[in-house]
Amino acid sequence: MRYFSVVASATTPGPNPKPDLTNQSRQHLNPRANGVRAALPPFVDWPAFPFEGELRIKALQEPVSVEPPRRGDRQEQCAACHTPDSAYLWTNERWRLKSPPAPSGLPVVVILEPRAHLDLGDLSTMHAAELGVLTVRLERAIRSLESVAQVHVNRWGDGTAHLQQWFLARPQGYLQLRGPFMTMWDEILPPVEEHEWRMNLEYISAWLTDD
Questions:
Q1: Matching CATH number, 75-209, of 3.30.300.90, 3.30.428.10, 3.40.50.2300, 3.40.50.80
Q2: How far is the C-alpha of 211 from the C-alpha of 208, rounded, in Å?
């Protein structure tokens, strides 16, 4: 919740309460620890929040003593390492770019991966420098599409051990999609037309190929 308070309020119009960053007892993490339903956080009233009506906070599960392995922790079991270049939109000596297999609610969603089995903290200085350059190039390419207003760049570390950096395009004019809830809207909105989706991907691939 503190992540949303700090990050989301900086990018999303609406109430912007000062976040509580004090070191309190961890009992407050469980909204039902005292048998009383916790108040909903302020972001449920923000224009970008995609749900309305009666909402309830889930009880927080007890922490596990040992975290489970992520997908592909062992390279021989990593799906990315065993996927051929033909399944990607663009590749070079050290990087590959792919998209989800079908269109979704956003005009563009693409994923940048290192060819080698590396996570973010494993990148060499060379890989790190290239990641910065490719991030800028991809953001420019996606944002240059007429249907796109802004590009969100995200990396989530819990799903797979092989680094995936996501680029998500906010469609032009849809101000309600601003902020950290855009990944939810991506699954809520009807998929974009497949021909438009394919044209967007081809354009981005050509942009990267044109060095």
A1: 3.30.428.10
A2: 7
